[in-house]
Amino acid sequence: MTTGFDEAFAQVPLKGAADGEYGAEMEARASAWMAQTKRGDPGAYDQLTNALRNRAFHLARAWVGSREDAMELAQEAFLKTYRARDTYREGEPFLPWFQRILRNTCFSFLRQSKRLRERSVSTRSAEGEPDFEIEDEEFAPGKDAELEERGAAFWRGFQRLSARDREILTLRHFQELSYSEIARILAIPEGTVMSRLFHARVRLRAALAPYFGEERS
Length: 217
Known about the structure:
Radius of gyration: 18 Å
Mean pLDDT: 81
Distance between the termini: 6 Å
Shape: globular
Oligomer: single chain
């Protein structure tokens, strides 16, 4: 039986799977486009941004909340990537490199807005990476009717999560990537992906409990 928790994922209008896959083929194409860009082919970068623009926007929105800010930050991340093209090492996967640029761009914006606070040392990943709490602005569903009830409740719960939890849940549930695809993008082992997802789902389920109640079998 479908639960309120499961239905919540399906009702949030943030999916980007129709934009193409982040699988090995896309990874190879993105890396090739970036290598061509580094060699001076501007058309290759147009192809790269067209292929990844929507996914970059959706992930930025999961971090910063505002649709307008997410659009600007995604564009800023692509601009930074282009400006740093000479530092890209040909032969290395492009997507993890771009993911770091996008994350840093969003986090810089949140720091400047005084909305980002590092969590305790005990929450650092096995790789030593810190995790952050994001202070979201007051939630406003906007004009989309789908966000008025269940979607709005979902976002209230989602905004209680840390930056790392938001990232892993967005990649898995909103962008519908496989464990191996997420592992490549975040440059972490698949086992770490599975562990992060498990704990993020537990925390999201707890955050959604006031809105959807406990699951029923």
